[in-house]
Amino acid sequence: MSRLRRQHSASLSNNVEAKDLNDMKNRTGNVYESIAIIAKRANQINISLKEELHSKLEEFASHTDSLEEVHENKEQIEISRAYEKMPNPALLATQEFLEDKIYHRKNEDDLFR
Asked: Is the dihedral angle over the CA atoms 21, 22, 23, 24 positive or is it negative?
């Protein structure tokens, strides 16, 4: 399991709780901007986890087209199940945002549009 997931798995509860939108708005001045920042971070987390999972599962891949060689691999199934049980990247990103762990800045070009 990645370092990022281990850190957050311990701190996230199994129950999702409502977040105060005013708290999100106060951090950037605009709730939509806050949500956009969270979405971008969630996408970054998702991409890194996907790459990590694919690299782990690549170890089990056979590069032949023979159907006779297809079988269930218990280690592969366990890895897949472990990733399925991990918290959603959007929840991780929201928690990071509310704990001020995400660096963000406004693009100056966006200010003049």
From this structure: positive
What is the token pair recorded at 92? 């991780």
- If one counts every other C-beta atom within 10 angstroms of the C-beta of residue 76, the result is 14
Domain boundaries, given as residue ranges, for the chain = 19-59+71-103
pTM of the model: 0.72
Rounded to an integer, what distance in angstroms lies between the CA atom of residue 23 and that of residue 65? 54
Please, which pLDDT band fits residue 46 given cuts at 50, 70 and 90?
very high
Query: Once rounded to an integer, what is the mean pLDDT over residues 67-94?
Result: 81
Taking 3-state DSSP, the helix, strand and coil percentages for the chain, each rounded to the nearest 5, stand at 65, 0, 35
Contacts with 28 (C-beta within 8 Å, 6 or more apart), sequence order: 34, 37, 104
Give the separation between CA 75 and CA 77, rounded to whole angstroms.
5
